[in-house]
Amino acid sequence: METLGRSFADAVGLLWNMDPALIETVVLTLEVTLVALVIALVIGIPVGAAIGLTRHLPGRWLIVPLIYTGMGLPPVTVGLFTYLVLSNQGPLGGLGWLFTPAGMIVAQTIIALPLVVGLTMAAVQGVDPNLPVQMVSLGATRRQVASVTLLEARVGVTAAVVAAYGAIISEVGAVMLVGGNIEGETRVLTTAIVLETRRGNFALAMALGIILLSLAFLTNFAFHRLQVHQGVR
Amino acid sequence: MAAVEREEHASIASTASAYPLILLLIVVMLLAVSCAGKTSDGERVLRLATTTSTNDSGLLDALLPSFESEYNARVDVVAVGTGQAIALGEAGDADVILVHARAREEAFVAEGHGTARSDVMFNDFVIVGPTDDPASITGIPLASDALASIAATEATFASRGDDSGTHSKELSLWDAAGMSSDPDAGWYKSLGQGMGSTLNYSNEVGAYTLTDRGTFLAQGDSLQNLRVMVGGASIDDNADPSLLNPYGVIPVNPDKGGIDAELADRFVEWLTSIETQEQIEIFGIESFGQPLFYPDSMAWRNR
Fold it and tell me: Contact at 8 Å (CB) between B46 and B96?
């Protein structure tokens, strides 16, 4: 109990003092997470919408289960895969991305992408199937059909964004392996929590956990305001 | 009549839908009982908090079965950094700790968290580095001189940075070299990770690091780009006494509650006995061509 109480005090103290190491860690956490999220959205939403809207997609029987499996990818396996690809001996070792934020973004994009594709696909499929048919009969192009359907499915698409964001900001296995938890270079909130736990600084570790949760809450709060703004509750 | 029939139907349906739930409950309870049942036949459980080096090297796997059969006990090993192992002991979440950070072990006993510290064994640290050796430290006998040379040439150095026993040793060596390790210097990388990960990092980027010899040998095949540069080919060749790494075992103070103090004491007795010490002496010779730990208990020294 004493540790728990102290961790709340520590969290407030760290934020109040604008602890420079903490600020650095928070900035890198947001940077890596948001860049990975944006890449995953730019690729994932169109791909998910395309799969959802194409009624007679060849190979759907295989593609859909593959996407669903991808939605549950163990982050540590993604991390290991990315590590091996970016390692000196790996095919992309020449990039020098191992133990850099760029490598961490690659791993997190791989984790986020199936979530965005899968949930966007499901959201689009939930839209009244007569809508595309009517639009086509009114002379709409494929692109116009897709954008109107996505707008109709915006609640589900926002859920895709929120789910992907939550998965990668709280993920530790992949960023630990690929980033290396290097102080001032690749240390993010989750790897800092693991480190402080190993050090036996349980209160500080919990304080960092509280800060991570607050960060997630603030972002989700912003997402929700956006939804309300769109007329969805 | 029709209404009665419908009602019957409904009640059958609700019973049917409750079946899977009841079944699930029964399965869960059976599983819980079977897990708890492992210890119900008089088997006792000892919670051992120790450092990754004793576990990753395979030493505990080799030693513990004889203790477990002799005392009809099961040892639950929690292998973590020295800092966390000590914290587990302080919280009463372990019955006994086996760690390597002499000063902190003594503080642990002095503060009343543990009953007494006993010598167990030692191994040694070495400085490993990339084969091209940019800081030219190969063959320097003293670790502190080698570190000074690494700092002077600003060659990349990977630090555990995790308050482990190895990290404590590294800091004391920087101190002996007359400089403070500066995490803000670009060449000094503070990883905050375990020994295995730190070695992998050093192998990838060509960094120097301080490691216990056992972990380096155990991971040898995957570390093609690293060589031992300070510390010699075996512990007998190690010219720097400050690189010796003693391990101590401490039973946790039973006042914390929930501690099996009797079993913890038996464990310390067993670990420091001549028979177990002989097992420690030969461990690793078969796999690595040299022992990884050297027995050093009071009983062993007085034999």
Answer: yes
B183 to chain A, any CB pair closer than 8 A? The answer is: yes
Please tell me the distance in Å from A11's CA to the nearest CA on chain B: 20
Per-residue pLDDT of B202-228, as tens digits, reads 999 999 999 999 889 888 888 999 999
Q: Is A56 exposed, middle or buried (0-12, 13-18, 19+ CB in 10 A)?
A: exposed
Q: Do A180 and B162 touch (CB under 8 A)?
A: no
Mean pLDDT of B78-82: 85
Domain B44-122+247-301 bears CATH identifier 3.40.190.10: yes
- Rounded distance between C-alpha atoms, residue A18 and residue A12, angstroms: 10
What confidence category does residue B52 fall into, taking pLDDT thresholds of 50, 70 and 90?
confident
Give the residue from chain B lying closest to A21, CA to CA. B184
Cβ–Cβ below 8 Å for A198 and B184: no
Residue B36 pLDDT > 90, yes or no?
Answer: no
In this complex, do A197 and B84 lie within 8 Å of one another by their Cβ atoms?
Answer: yes
pLDDT digit string (tens) for B2-11? 444 444 444 4
Record the tokens describing residue B196, joined without a space: 């295995």
From chain A, pick out residues whose CB is under 8 angstroms from the CB of B55.
none
| Residues A180, B193: C-beta atoms closer than 8 Å | yes
| Partners of residue B84 in chain A, C-beta under 8 Å | 197-200
Domain map of chain A by residue range?
2-229
CATH T-level assignment (fold) for domain A2-229: MetI-like fold (1.10.3720)
CB-based contact B191 A98, cutoff 8 Å: no
Cβ contacts of residue B227 below 8 Å, gap of 6+?
B128, B129, B130, B131, B133, B138
Q: What ranges do the domains of chain B cover? A: 44-122+247-301, 124-243
Query: What CATH number is given for B124-243 in this structure?
Result: 3.40.190.10
pLDDT at A107 over 90: yes
Structure tokens at A147: 């954008």
Neighbours of A83 (CB within 10 A): 21
Helix (H) or strand (E) holding B158: strand B157-159
